[in-house]
Design a protein that fits this description.
Layout: H1 2-16, E1 21-28, E2 31-41, H2 45-56, E3 63-65, E4 70-76, E5 87-95, E6 99-107, H3 119-216
Antiparallel strand pairs: 1-2, 2-6, 3-4, 4-5, 5-6
Length: about 220
């Protein structure tokens, strides 16, 4: 049991650990600006985009810059990011191998938030993205759970089919045993019938011999 629990823990460890937020200057629609990036294992672009849009909805209208492939929310307030004034959030999702990356730029009205110029606000952005990564992890694990439950359901179906076959085999054996018992009974009856028929044959043979004698005796009495 302990070995099984250890295997489960090792399997889930990559998903349950917190994703790391990296910070670097990255090109976006407004030029080269300081950005925060987080890798989201197991989540493709479509999943991350849908979750990101829903995640931003409480903070205002989510718009998209199709050319730059960015989603943004203008002039909003985010409790996790302690800015003096409204902020504008820009986000872009990039596809990876069995993962996606979310890059976020946050304009506080004076500059794009960075650890060097606004450490408290930068920490808030990291918290904001880390909390988002938890939602992604839940979605990824939830999808995995659906797949595993589907597999379990299929396994149970397979077991049901095997159990049905097993029942059929037992019924075949029961029917075969009945046929064997019936055949054995028929054999015994057949042997008795053979004995009875042999007796009839013996009696008939005597009758035939008697008739032959009578036939042969015709005309010999004088």
């Amino acid at each position: 049991m302990k070995t099984y629990q250890l295997l489960i823990a090792l399997f889930l460890f990559p998903l349950l650990t917190s994703a790391q937020v990296s910070e670097r200057s990255t090109t976006m629609s407004l030029g080269n600006k300081n950005a925060f990036t987080i890798d989201l294992n197991g989540s493709d672009r479509k999943m991350t985009e849908n979750l990101w849009k829903n995640y931003l909805k409480p903070y205002g209208k989510v718009e998209r810059n199709k050319k730059a492939k960015e989603y943004y929310v203008n002039q909003t307030k985010v409790p996790a990011i302690p800015s003096n004034g409204p902020i504008t959030i820009y986000g872009r999702i990039d596809e990876g191998s069995d993962m996606s990356s979310l890059t976020v730029w946050v304009d506080n009205g004076v500059s794009f938030i960075s650890s060097d110029e606004a450490p408290s606000e930068a920490n808030g952005v990291e918290v904001f993205l880390t909390n988002f990564s938890y939602l992604v992890q839940k979605e990824v694990i939830g999808k995995e759970l659906e797949e595993e439950e589907k597999r379990l359901k299929n396994f149970n179906k397979d077991l049901g089919k095997l159990e049905k076959k097993n029942k059929g085999y037992h019924e075949d054996i029961e029917n075969a045993n009945k046929k064997i018992a019936e055949a054995e009974s028929n054999i015994e009856k057949n042997l008795l019938d053979q004995d009875a028929k042999r007796e009839e044959i013996a009696a008939q043979e005597k009758m035939v011999e008697s008739v032959k004698v009578r036939l042969n005796s015709v005309g010999k009495e004088n």
